[in-house]
Specification:
Elements (H helix, E strand, L loop, with lengths): L5 H6 L10 H10 L8 H9 L12 H6 L1 H20 L1 H12 L3 H11 L8 H16 L8 H18 L1 E8 L2 H4 L3 H7 L7 E6 L5 E4 L10 H5 L6 E2 L4 H10 L6 E5 L12 H10 L4 E4 L1 H9 L3 H24 L6 H15 L7 E7 L29 E11 L2 E11 L5 H20 L6 H15 L2 E9 L6 E5 L8 H4 L13 E9 L8 E4 L2 E3 L6 E2 L9 E2 L1
Length: 553
């Protein structure tokens, strides 16, 4: 119902109660006919400790950038006028009331009882905005990256294209690596699909997305209602349709780029059939790999992206609490697995089967070999084995929010008291975790960081499967990744050639701490990790994993 009609409906007795705007509250308070049930603004202050931001002054980005001094001066003058009005209320309220035919008493009531108009953004305002964001995210209302972030990315990529002489980039996505084959669509269009897609990103004009078979677009493409980044969405009908669109836009003159998935463990993953189709359709164009442009752009996360990762971290902690609560003798590994996955989804995360798990007895015959140094991937997890007293359970999982992935590793011992050797491994793991928070800071060299992280393990004489970090965001693992010692694993995973490179603020890392003591047991270890944002001074942790080893049973 429109706000002006609410008092009349309330007076007529057609409703029992109603929310009134400030001017209506003022008029109602004068009649004595109404009884206030509550003051929303006061209730919010009591609940969250700050006054909520109910209105903002906003401007268009291009106009702000063109002449920021005008906006700054406007804000200064407006704040000065507000300060004068509050210092001389009788003069100001009478003058404004006379000008706009409003009782001066309303202004007095508004400033003393209803709200305030600070003009300038304060630390409390920032806190209030963050509270609102967090609560909306918890309710599942914020699952998309805002359009202003789209504009930033599109402008940055088009600048790179202009320098490289590329007229258009053809995006090709699929379900490789548990859905990470769609990262470029996530990054440029806020679109994900396990069925794959083809996209056209031109140097000018609107992009086009070809996604899914025709029947998935009936009665409309769901993708249209789930994001605001792209509006030209069509069903896939083969490369001839894509090529025709490129020719119609006269983009087939010069270079055409393509962008596909890759990470530290997989080279650029373009399907041979797709590459042949591009070369066949555009024999006179230079077809070049532009994937690296997007990889470079994703290296440093914006604060908007980090907000999405914080939400993934919130879901990760909820899933971790479910792991700790349900890791009990008598449950099967499958039941524990399902509780952790359920907790992620209920918390607001996208369904994601990057959930590794292994369980088994710490004490077992020496002629048996158990897989308890690192959690197992699918299809080896989960299994139907019943968890038992004396087991250790280790897990690694990624929670995904708006496509952004947060990494967590953790362990639990099923019994009232873990063996001393196992608790020693845990204590050293915690030391490595604390060292990681100090090491993953802006300006520190990669080599200095990995040495800091590994020092507690080396001092204790422990070995590791992984010990370091891997870059992560929409995809994983990506540069920079250092989890292996020199000479082990691929150069992309052991830091070879990057010793003097420096960490930069805004890099986001999945921490990896997977320790064991081969002098005690060669097949039993523990896993512990948080998700970290590189910051000055100390890394920001997004999961806040506990530092006590759960000993349950």
């Amino acid at each position: 119902m429109p706000a002006p009609g609410v008092p009349a409906v309330l007076s007529a007795g057609n409703v029992d109660a109603a929310t009134l705007i400030h001017a209506q509250v003022y008029q109602a308070s004068k009649t004595g006919d109404y009884h206030p049930l509550g003051a929303v603004s006061k209730d919010l202050i009591d609940s969250f400790g700050v006054r909520m931001v109910t209105a903002v002054l906003a401007g268009y980005g291009d106009k702000l950038n063109a002449d920021p001094e005008i906006y700054q001066e406007f804000s200064r003058v407006l704040r000065a006028a507000m300060d004068y009005a509050l210092a001389h209320p009788e003069e100001a309220f009478n003058a404004v009331g006379k000008e706009y035919n409003i009782e001066p008493g309303f202004y007095d009531a508004w400033f003393s009882s209803y709200s305030e108009f600070p003009v300038l953004l304060s630390k409390d305002d920032m806190k209030a905005i963050q509270v609102l964001w967090d609560k909306c995210a918890e309710l599942g209302l914020l699952t998309d990256v805002p359009v202003v972030e789209r504009d930033r990315r599109w402008q940055q990529l088009r600048t790179k294209m202009k320098i490289a002489g590329i007229n258009a980039i053809v995006l090709m996505g699929n379900d490789l690596w548990n859905g990470m084959g769609m990262i470029n669509f996530r990054y440029l269009m806020q679109v994900g699909s396990y069925m794959g897609a083809v996209g056209l990103f031109p140097i000018e004009g609107d992009p086009v997305l070809w996604i899914g078979p025709e029947h998935m677009g009936r009665p409309y493409w769901r993708t249209l209602s789930e994001q605001e980044w792209v509006t030209d969405i069509r069903d896939r009908k083969g490369w001839s349709v894509v090529a025709a669109e490129i020719r119609d836009r006269k983009l087939d003159r010069g270079k055409i780029g393509y962008a596909v998935f890759s990470n530290t463990l997989s080279s650029a993953a373009i399907l041979e059939g797709d590459k042949r189709s591009l070369n066949r359709e555009f024999p006179n164009c230079a077809i070049v790999d532009a994937s690296h442009m997007l990889t470079e752009m994703r290296l440093i996360k914006s604060e908007v992206e980090i907000d999405m990762l914080r939400e993934a971290g919130r879901c990760a902690r909820i899933a971790l609490d479910a792991f700790i609560e349900n890791a009990r003798p008598g449950l099967t590994e499958r039941e524990l697995f399902s509780e952790v996955l359920k907790a992620q989804i209920v918390a607001g995360a996208e369904p994601n089967l990057h959930l590794f798990m292994s369980s088994g007895p710490v004490e077992h015959p020496v002629d048996e070999m158990w897989h308890l140094l690192h959690a197992s991937e699918q299809p080896f997890a989960p299994v139907g084995r019943m968890l038992e007293q004396g087991d250790v359970v280790i897990t690694e999982y990624h929670t995904k929010y708006a496509g952004y992935r947060c990494h967590t590793e953790f362990s639990a011992y099923l019994g009232p008291k873990a063996p001393d050797q196992l608790r020693r491994i845990w204590d050293v793991s915690v030391e490595c975790l604390e060292a990681s928070k100090e090491a993953l800071t802006a300006g520190r060299s990669f080599q200095e960081a990995w040495r800091m992280i590994r020092r507690p393990a080396e001092k204790a004489g422990l070995d590791y499967v992984e010990l370091g970090w891997h870059g992560m965001g929409l995809d994983s693992p990506v540069f920079p990744t250092v989890v292996y010692p020199e000479g082990r694993g691929s150069p992309a995973g052991n830091g070879a050639g990057t010793e003097d490179w420096e960490l930069q603020e805004g890099m986001t890392m999945g921490n990896n701490i997977d320790l064991h003591d081969p002098s005690w047991k060669r097949d039993v270890g523990l896993m512990l990790a948080d998700f970290m944002v590189v910051r000055p001074g100390r890394a920001e942790c997004l999961v806040d994993v506990p530092t006590e080893l759960p000993q349950v049973g």
